[in-house]
Specification:
The complex is a heterodimer of chains A (about 475) and B (about 260). Chain A is mainly α. Chain A is built from 16 helices and no strands. Chain A folds into 2 domains: about 150 residues, no CATH class; about 190 residues, MetI-like (MetI-like fold, Orthogonal Bundle), CATH 1.10.3720.10. Chain B has about 260 residues and is an alpha/beta fold. In chain B, the strands form 2 sheets. A 6-stranded mixed β-sheet of chain B has the order 6-7-8-3-9-10, sandwiched between helices. A 4-stranded antiparallel β-sheet of chain B has the order 2-1-4-5, covered by helices on one side. The chains are: A mainly alpha (about 475), B alpha/beta (about 260).
């Protein structure tokens, strides 16, 4: 139904574009009128006036329609019969909906039948009203804009303005979405922190949220609270995240940076053109595939290798996960540092060669320091990628929240735990699931602060030498 | 004026960038402790020529060199020549001042540190002071040696680059349009400086300004379309050129 209306609006727009355009052309040829702009702009102008108001009405209407219909139907049902014992209005309405859709199973009551009748009537009425009002709005826009065509107004500037607002509203949508995400995190976290002390969460060293499985947060008794109070210490998770990210950076920074330097300074144009895309393929491999690789190849390899040395290596280890994550991140570091090093002016290199420096001396003492802000930037980007990575850790590092600095033991990260907390059927009012939001919020804040500090450092360094 | 010793000698020098030939059969003798100016219209091969003398063209993959360039009688393109030693001996100053993004002090300390010229901090400090004095920059920067080199004005930056070039005790200094990015006052200072440096170094300067060539040089070479058209004393070149093309160029009829 909605698709039909949408198509109608689009067709109307296309029609009005051509109508506006041809009318403007006719004005030029028949009456020898000199228009201020090209006929195409009149076409756009009419089409935009026809389409935008009706699309806005369409969106707003579709947003509020279900709520309004529900209110009316429930009102009808309530006036027609009594509320059945134990059933809330929401449930009744759900039953009415599924009866109307024809997939109702269970006891059929009069209430539902009456409701379904009313629902069908109101829905068809609403559809007609919607179609009529949208089409009339489109027509009004069309007529308004069409009248302006003959009055020789400056359609080009008007189109320009409309486009400006369209672009502006797109960016507003992006910002609003970000805000929405932050607030949804924030509200759920506040709920969590109303049952669990924030300091217990931030500084506790024991993470075992399954203790609090499916328990209504609002009705926790004092004894129960004592029991679950210690279950939400996030320190092991953040320590695990930092630890695995550190291992990953130990792999990615040297290899990525050195291959970036090779690409920028030593590789010939031809080999650079071949090697760079090949390294970048690494970035295109789905993380789940890296996960297989870590869990099925690297992990067992470390275990067997460790056993041959007489070490006790768990088959899910921080080392395996960090190593594979590091490999995944190599292209971020290498590609970006290659770009940054290439951006260092050739004149600096020549100045260095001219006093008799070799290539590696030049790179070490002139090119690298000049490129450092950008290189730091690329490394930080890689760090945030490492912190946010989930799949490899789920598959290769395990789920046990051990507070350990032994890379051969299994450990876990914040993102992995969020996944574990929210997978499957969950009650969203238990502290267990709410803690996922608190973790998400904390992780978000940590990355935000990291990024901010990084930007400041880079900026300060730049000011010094530019 | 007595003839000085020949410092640089090229024979049948030809340079190719890929398919394109940039220099044709250049034969030239440059004498010790003189300033030689190279003039000619843009793209005529002057810069290519001086970049051959410290093998700066090695950086460019597609560049090929034929013929010979000798410094003190040794072919610099021979296998036994260490390009790093060569560049230590043949310094270069570029068209655009290119100080490193380091302090003034570190800019000059860079070369000596790489080559281990000084034994301790005291010697290094002396060397830096001397280099800056020779480049006529010491008085202007002595109180702010640890500020970034890029904070200086354009003319000061160029003198810093000259100081950097002489910090490794070269014998030859190549200058590729060193004043083209500078204002007249800074240019006058550099020209004065070049005149003083002549006593110690052999200098080759590429310039677009005929007046500058007259002011600073003893010998002048005129290049056109990759060929050395005329070479001789600056005095004769500008008063009584033997080639018509030179005559046309220096009187501004083409180029």
């Amino acid at each position: 139904m909605n698709l039909g209306i949408f198509t109608a609006i689009l067709l109307f727009c296309i029609f009005s574009y051509f109508f506006g355009q041809t009318t403007a052309k006719k004005l030029v040829t028949n009456q020898n009128l000199k228009l201020k702009t090209l006929p195409t702009y009149y076409g756009y102008f009419v089409a935009l006036w026809c389409g935008i108001p009706s699309l806005i009405l369409f969106a707003v209407w579709s947003l509020f329609e279900p709520t309004i219909i529900k209110t009316i139907v429930v009102g009808k049902v309530l006036s027609a019969s009594q509320i059945e014992a134990g059933l809330t209005t929401n449930l009744i309405y759900q039953k009415i909906l599924s009866y109307s859709a024809g997939n109702f199973t269970g006891d059929l009551t009069d209430t539902i039948k009456i409701g379904a009748l009313a629902y069908a009537k109101i829905t068809s009425l609403a559809y007609k009203a919607k179609l009529a009002s949208i089409l009339s709005l489109a027509s009004i826009g069309f007529i308004y804009a069409f009248n302006k065509v003959s009055k020789n107004n400056n359609a080009r500037n008007d189109v320009e303005n409309i486009l400006k607002w369209l672009l502006f509203s797109s960016s507003v949508i992006a910002i609003l979405t970000t805000l929405g995400i932050i607030f949804s995190l924030l509200f759920e976290s506040i709920k969590f922190f109303s049952s669990i002390n924030i300091f217990d969460f931030l500084f506790g060293t024991n993470w075992s949220p399954q203790k609090a499985f499916v328990r209504d947060a609002s009705a926790i008794t004092a004894e129960e609270y004592l029991e679950i109070k210690d279950a939400f210490g996030s320190v092991p998770l953040f320590a695990g995240t930092a630890f695995i990210a550190l291992i990953a950076m130990c792999v990615a920074v040297p290899i990525g940076l050195f291959s970036g330097i090779y690409l920028a300074e030593y590789a010939s144009y031809k080999s650079r053109r071949t090697i760079k895309p090949i390294i970048e393929i690494l970035a295109g491999i789905p993380t789940v595939v890296y996960g297989f690789f870590a869990a099925l190849t690297v992990g067992p390899f470390f275990r067997e290798f460790g056993e041959s040395l007489g070490l006790n290596v768990s088959s899910e280890s921080a080392l395996a996960a960090g190593l594979v994550m590091g490999i995944m991140i190599i292209p971020y570091v290498s590609s970006l540092s290659d770009d940054v090093i290439n951006a260092v002016p050739q004149s600096l290199r020549e100045g260095s060669y001219a006093v008799g420096a070799t290539k590696s001396e030049t790179i070490k003492k002139v090119v690298f320091p000049a490129a450092l802000p950008g290189i730091i930037g690329s490394i930080l980007l890689a760090v945030s990628r490492a912190i946010g990575e989930t799949m490899i850790v789920v598959m290769a590092a395990g789920l046990a929240a051990n507070l350990t600095i032994n890379p051969l033991e299994s450990t876990t990260t914040v993102t992995t735990q969020i996944v574990m907390l929210l997978v499957g059927d969950q009650e969203f009012d238990s502290p267990k699931t709410q803690s996922a939001f608190a973790l998400g919020l904390t992780l978000f804040l940590v990355t935000l602060v990291l990024n901010y500090i990084a930007l400041r450092v880079v900026k300060k360094y730049r000011e010094k030498y530019d | 004026m007595k003839e000085r010793k020949i410092k640089i000698k090229t024979e049948n020098l030809e340079v190719y960038y890929g398919e394109k030939q940039a220099l044709f059969d250049v034969n030239l003798e440059i004498h010790e402790k003189e300033v030689t100016a190279l003039i000619g219209p843009s793209g005529c091969g002057k810069s290519t020529f001086i970049r051959c003398i410290n093998r700066m063209n090695d950086v460019i993959d597609i560049c090929k060199i034929k013929g010979s360039i000798e410094i003190d009688g040794k072919n610099i393109n021979h296998k036994s020549i260490d390009v790093v030693r060569l560049r230590e001996k043949v310094g270069m100053v570029f068209q655009k001042p290119n100080p490193f993004p380091k302090s003034i002090y570190d800019n000059i300390a860079y070369g000596p540190k790489i080559h281990g010229i000084t034994k301790n901090k005291g010697e290094l400090d002396n060397l830096i002071e001397n280099s800056l004095r020779k480049a006529a920059l010491w008085n202007e920067v002595k109180d702010r040696l640890h500020e970034p080199g890029t904070s200086l004005s354009g003319g000061q930056q160029q003198r810093l680059c000259i100081a950097r070039a002489i910090s490794v005790n070269p014998e030859i200094i190549l200058m590729d349009e060193p004043c083209s990015a500078l204002d007249p006052i800074a240019t006058a200072k550099i020209e004065e400086l070049i005149d003083e440096l002549r006593e110690t170094y052999t200098i080759i300067i590429v310039t677009h300004s005929m007046a500058q060539a007259v002011r600073v040089s003893q010998k002048t070479g005129f290049f056109h379309l990759g060929k050395l058209i005329e070479f001789g004393t600056t005095e004769k070149m500008f008063k009584n050129p033997s080639n018509n093309m030179t005559q046309d160029y220096i009187t501004g009829r083409f180029g």
